[in-house]
Specification:
The complex is a heterodimer of chains A (about 300) and B (about 130). Chain A has helices at about 1-10, 15-35, 35-40, 60-65, 70-85, 90-110, 120-130, 140-145, 155-180, 190-200, 220-235, 240, 245-265, 270-275, 280-300. Chain A is mainly alpha-helical. Chain A has a domain at about 1-170. Chain A is globular and about 70 Å long. With about 130 residues, chain B is an alpha+beta fold. Chain B is globular, with a radius of gyration of 17 Å. Classes of the chains: A mainly alpha (about 300), B alpha+beta (about 130). Chains A and B meet through helix 3, helix 6, helix 9 and helix 10 of A and strand 1, helix 1, helix 2 and helix 3 of B.
Amino acid sequence: MASGLIERVVPRGPFALGVVRSIVHGTFLISTLFTSFSALGSLPPTILRPTGVMKLLPWSFYDQLQTPSGILTLKTLMVLSLILSTIGFGTVISTKTSLLLVVFYQGLLRSFGHFNHDEMVAVYFMVVLAFTPCGDAFSVDSWMRKTKRERPAFAYAYPILLMQLLLAWAYFSSALIKLRVAGLKYLSADNLPSLAIFHSLDNLHDTSFKIAFMLPQVKQYLPFAVAFVVIWELLFPLAIFFQRIRWWILWIGVLFHLATLLVMNIFFPHQLAMYLIFVNWEPLTRWTMKMRKMTKTGTDSSS
Amino acid sequence: MMAGGDLERGRSYCILRGETVSGQTVDVAPILLTDALYSRTWTMVNATIDNQSFKLKSIHPANEEMLRQYGGVENLPPGARIPDLLKVWGELYNMRQPESSPNRLKAIRLDMYRWESGRYSDYDKFITSWHQDL
């Protein structure tokens, strides 16, 4: 019964899981390529506060890492591994090395700053992908393989469902925590304006929008907006099971994250990219097969 | 953020500024200098002001040495390592300017303000500043 439900709500083929692998690893590849590691490496290790297992590493390691050659080595390893896992070459190994390197890098960033959420869902996705057959299609591995690997549909559908649940849980638990920590006070008229203004006063945030300073003028309406967001977060899991409302929930999510950028100068680009997990990529496989067939026919007739 | 905003609670915040060789004061956005940290920059600055890297179980040898000089974490000035951070940001900023540019920085500073709160005004009560010549 469980497998029937899974196969009804998520794509069943290896192609969809392969595309998801490319999206998740490709997202980290792009962000790694476009991030200045040399600037990161110039930050003094004396302001580091290693977190979690990062505490187990000796200070001499961080002193070596926070140098131009140390940080360049990390970037090179990350780029190489993420290229392999994105294209699906040596997928069984490369998805695991990419996971390890990305987790280490995220640990380093959080040892400088705080434990924020943006990349966390994508990191959880990498954990799922590292231990599932995500290289069976849409990968160099599958292209090079002479025989087609067959597994039950459940093996490809289950990881996608798990990732959708993880994304939904991120929003659902966020609403629960808000209600548990602040209760109905979270819906007070001053909640959003004071929070948004605080995040707009400095120049240390992602952007420097000043829209927050207009919020006190409309503060009587803001509890409705905040309540709407909390309800949307609580309803997010419905996006998994009901195709009809899925796109409404996801589009509200896109608008919500754009609003937090404009109003609070905080953005979640990695988390937004993970919305692509809800796209059914299986029709793309029919399209690619059709294109391949057309190309083949064209080549045959011209010869 | 989970607890929401509280108008009655005062909050401190910082602005990074540079003093150019031509004598102008300009705002410097650290996210453009150390982009890897993006939304974590403000918490990194807050933690550094709070000397949190001196309050770990195992602290960096250079921080241990500094603690010995000051005679304990309670004697450290706030933001004991902020000048090091400012130096890095100042040098990164200048690396992106041509050698002869009047926009190059001769000094960089972190200004701390406080929004005493309770009302939607008086956002910028000056508290203190850290300065680093480049």
